[in-house]
Amino acid sequence: MKHNPEEDWKLERQLALRKEGWTDTGPKRVVKVVKPGTVLTEARGFILIGLSIVGQTPIGIAYAAGLPTRDYVDGAWIYKLRRKPAESEVQYELTAKYPDGLAYQEGWSNPDYPPGDDTLHQWTIRKGLRISVLPDYLDLKPGQKFPYDWL
User: Fold this and answer.
1) Residue among 64, 43, 63 at smallest CA distance from 52
2) Measured between alpha carbons, how far is 25 from 58 in angstroms, rounded to an integer?
3) How far is CA 19 from its chain centroid?
4) Global pTM?
5) Of 122, 66, 64, the residue nearest 94 (C-alpha)
6) Three-state secondary structure call for residue 8
7) Bridging pattern class, strands 90-95 and 121-125
8) What is the pLDDT of residues 80-99, one digit of tens each?
9) How confident is the model over 108-118, as pLDDT tens digits?
10) Alpha carbon distances (Å) from 118 to 4, 21, 75
């Protein structure tokens, strides 16, 4: 297939105009998923919307998010962000199918972070920035499904 530069600027414009529609409570609340035992007061790195992981087990979340599943065999801790990130604080990284916002290439990409689910949208908190999390994290046990009502 031939590359069309016109499509590039259209995609860039669409992403620049993107409004996330996050909420402070409920299913569109932003969360941070970490390995069990990871104590946070502030989030950095990748974040996602709670709705995208509802009904998933820790291993399912890791698989969908393109995280190393071995890190989640003992469960996951999920934190709520204290507030919605400002658009200037985050960068949209496409879906989890694109680790770190890039297409996965065998032999070049980090095999610890394989492509995840193409429907799970991800953002990264810009380098040097942190966003406070609430202290009451969810201790999601192995095999337990992430509950909708926790959001």
Assistant:
1) 64
2) 22
3) 16
4) 0.84
5) 122
6) helix
7) antiparallel
8) 999 999 989 999 988 899 88
9) 888 888 899 99
10) 23, 19, 23
